[in-house]
Amino acid sequence: MSDEMTPMMRQYRQIKSEMPDGVVLFFRLGDFYEMFFEDAKTAAPILDIALTRRNSVPMCGVPFHAVDGYIARLIKAGLKVAVCEQVEDASAAKGIVKREVTRIVTPGTATEDSILESGRHNFLAGVCCAGDVFGLALLDMSTGLFFGEEAGSLQILCDIIRRYAPTECIIPAESMNDMSLRDFLAGSVSGNLTSGEDWTFDYDTARDTMVRHLGVHSLDGFGCEGKRAIVGAAGGVLYYVKEDLRRQTGHIRSFALRMSSEFLLLDEATCGNLDLVPLRGQAAKFTLMGTLDVTKTAMGARMLRDWCWRPLVELRKITERHEAISVLCGNRPLLANLRDSLGHVRDMERLIMRIGSGMTNGRDIVAISESLKSVPSLRGQLEKIEDGLLSGLGGSMFELPELVALIDKAIVDEPPVTVKEGGIIRAGYNAELDELRSIAAKGRTWLAEYQASEQTRTGIKTLKVRHNRVFGYYIEISKGQLGNVPDNYNRKQTLVNAERFITPELKEYETKVFDAQDRAMALEYDLFMNVRQAVVDETARIQSTAGAIGCLDVISSLADRALAMRYTRPVMTEGDVVKIKGGRHPVVEQMSDRERFVPNDTELDCVSNQLIIITGPNMAGKSTYIRQVALIVIMAQMGSFVPADHAEIGVVDRVFTRVGASDDLARGRSTFMVEMQETANILNSATGRSLIVLDEIGRGTSTFDGISIAWAVAEYLHNNESVKAKTLFATHYHELTDLALTMQGVKNYNVQVKEKNDKIVFLRKIVPGGSDKSYGIQVARLAGMPQEVIDRAKEILANLEEGELGETGQPSIAKHRPRKSRDDAAQMDLF
Q1: Both ends of the chain: CA-CA distance in Å?
Q2: Rg (CA), the chain
Q3: Whole-angstrom Cα distance, residue 432 to residue 444?
């Protein structure tokens, strides 16, 4: 059958055979990218295009000028796409046009704007295991950000991966045999799990890959020499991108090792329970990031997300950020000027990536120039500030005036999308180009004059000199005037109502004009590539500038929010006290349709206020209160001012939350199992420097079981010296208030309500003392429950409160019955 295939199809088969499994090949044919065989069957329904057949071969195609949109749809469907281009001029080719795969796009390596979100990193992850240590490397191809972390267990690896939400993960092929690791990773990266060759993750090979790429003698300067798991993961990722996917990686200039000890650890449950950042598809305004994000640049938005995920634990760095915000809050004109200058900066991180990889056009070059024009203003303003962090950011910005001048001189203000069809270089930049353009421009005048002279010479008033892309220049004469055609006219094409001719003079001019146009376009492309290379040569300084601008953008955004929302600077200490006066929930207080927010105080430490039991009715605000305390601590440690009248925050090492009811059916876990596993993680992982927020422990099982578990958990947190963490414990089990009678560090608080005529009003105020009622029936009435149900529930509640027991020792809830003696009761009081 291969003998019957055309040369083009044999070429396609050869290129396709070199592709990894599961890659859809976009094969360039003229103005289209075609897909054949199984690729066509897979892609057609996703792209909503027609699946056709030619010689029994299934095929479909998309126009080349709209390819990014079609690639984006396949990538979002979890597929990989190889782009095969014509790499030689079809008119100059001898035989079949030479074609090569120029790039392979995968979910984790996509760099197209149509696929990416500007305020979110798109990470490719690599995982490698060395002994008991997991190494995780994360690469954002769109910005060049490349870093790694170590994890001592699969659970910690889980927390880190879920936090960064990579869209693709590559692991050694042998790790695919580890069912627990493979299944977990597949669920964490939306199923986009790729196996790489084992030897690329081997320490020696991976180290060599890293050293060669970074141009260094060892990895000591990056803090990861000898770290087998980290280096294995990073080297495996880099090899996959450079060799397997054939991608340009010149913009990846560094690697950073992030140490867990440098950051406040937040597990997956805590990040979700506190709504720190918007997950895909979630409304941003209902998250902490959505509340704080008024950044002006895409770099700033991505960095703010990272700050929310990774608050600090080092007091000096936290204080640096607070001081910088304080400086800007104290100088509103400076803050306004900085934010105005930031508003003119484009996404320099992704622009320099596209320029460096060759996937660029004149608009990207102009955008870099326009962004760099804001740097002198930013640096000038920061140089006047004595604050160390802000002045340091100014020192990390580079103005690059020579590069800006070159771009402005060479590139037109509004360049075309394409780079090989002319119109991109400014007039006056190159004398030779100006001359070639002049020849082409004068052609229009020459043609008009030539047409007039031929009309006069032949006497044919309707004679027209025209041009099209297929036939070039020609003279068109209607059928009725063919008798007047001169002998030197050579017939070129016959139409229904006219004939087209060419003359030696016109042919000579056509050659001259076409030659000038071709030379002009070729020269323009060469000149553009020279300018592009000048930008690429400044990649390191542009990346440094982009990073500093992103950080400045975050600080100015937090300063803006501090002023607009009446946030105060927290007092940070190394102690164990968390004392908040007039604390507010940063997200809830911004909801316009809510009642007026009521601030509350908090005092926690590891001695006399270590375990706070909070009781009160549903809907009264217990959950909001305990969440707001956790959010205030996180905001303080990420470097933000906080929603409170005053706050003293002793730096914590971890924040844990166990909030709400949810199941995990995909992993076979019921609501109660999820609750117990999250609680177990807290008890096994917390330290004396942690902050724990618990909401309704034990509610997923029977009342007696639930109370028993909640009581035992509270005792453990109070009595176990290694886990004696600051804890807020909201519960409906009023029995837990008795803990304060025997335990020094336990305090009771409740949410105040006002009850009148069997109705309640929530006052939202946290006050000392325990609550002896849950007011559940009153809340049911507020929810619209039928009155008949409300009345019956009150009757049943009265029976239960009287402790009436049936013959089996269970409460008699249906009706009143004669009370048995205590000796006959099968069920003893719990407490």
Answers
A1: 85
A2: 35
A3: 20
